[in-house]
Amino acid sequence: MAVFFTAALLAMTCPLMAFDLGQSTRCVPIPNQMKVCQDVGYSEMRLPNFLGHSSLESEVVPRSEDWRPLLQTGCHPQAQAFLCSLIAPVCLDTFILPCRSLCVAVRDSCAPVLACQGHAWPEALDCDRFPAQEDMCLSPQPKFNHFVKDLPKPACQNCPSVEDSPAMKTVLDALCQHDFAVIAKLSRRRLPMGEPEFEIEGRVEFIRQGPLLPYDTQHLLQQWLLINVRCAHALVRPGRAQLYLLTGAVQHDGSLALTRLFPRHKKDVNIAVATRKWKHHRC
Fold first, then answer.
1. Which class for 29: exposed (0-12), middle (13-18), buried (19 or more C-beta within 10 A)?
2. Could you cite one Gene Ontology molecular function of this protein (predicted)?
3. What number does CATH give the domain 151-280?
4. Rounded to an integer, what distance in angstroms lies between the CA atom of residue 120 and that of residue 137?
């Protein structure tokens, strides 16, 4: 999964606008197995699509699944609409391409996620290839919820240090030095293709809440795992779950960074003692 986007990149080496807008197309139902584009607000798509794929079974459906891990990171709220407008274009009387402004918005949010995996934004999705006229293309939706903008966001980062069997003072110092501290169970699942490989299992326990919000933190940490998938591979073995004390900070740009992780094992009592003492500890 660390190189999940390789197949999609290879599938998109040909220029996007090689698709001939004057060629004959047909309308077909979006197949049920094409999960990536099941909830886009329409049920029929054009074939060939804007990537030049003409076969549902051998091209459209399998290549659409290559995008699922990127969408699962939540890198942009309109990433699905943008990608599906290309791989499953809506069947109307005219061709509707995504606007250049939509491409730029999605690229600016999602390209850093690809970079975290060691991949560049695909050349076939060069935003200059898309139309600039907002009234003849799929444009970005306005941001209605201004509060969401102020929530911490996961971002690509260097992998945090992992410290086994820490001394109690080490844990207390980490709690003092960072904005937040939580206990969470990181899980790496063996599930059918398309399901997130990493998740936060069960409830998140707050030791130091800081700027985090209870209803958002579990989802926030799971997105961190999916974005920083190389770090996640080092933290959790396949088919296993591991309990961690995680400490971190929220940066000036609003991005969340995990800084020190302490695996919680039954034989290690220092973490449990330190978290109990924290309520009355003076930094």
1. exposed
2. Wnt-protein binding
3. 2.40.50
4. 25
| Residues of the chain with confidence (pLDDT) below 70 | 1-23, 143-149, 191-195
Q: Which two tokens stand for residue 128?
A: 């200059």
CA distances (Å), origin 132, targets 90, 95, 127, 155, 265: 19, 15, 10, 29, 56
Q: Are residues 105 and 140 in contact, defined by beta-carbon separation less than 8 angstroms?
A: yes
Radius of gyration of the chain (CA): 22
Q: What is the CATH number of domain 6-136?
A: 1.10.2000.10
- In the block, residue with structure tokens 């139902």: 29
Q: Where in the chain is the domain with CATH 2.40.50?
A: 151-280
Each residue's pLDDT tens digit, 67-92: 888 999 999 999 999 999 999 999 98
β-bridge partners, 122:
none
Identify the CA nearest to 12 among candidates 112, 86, 114, 88: 86
Nearest one of 22, 40, 20 to 30, comparing CA atoms = 40
**What are the residues facing 167 on neighbouring strands?**
none
10 three-class SS: helix
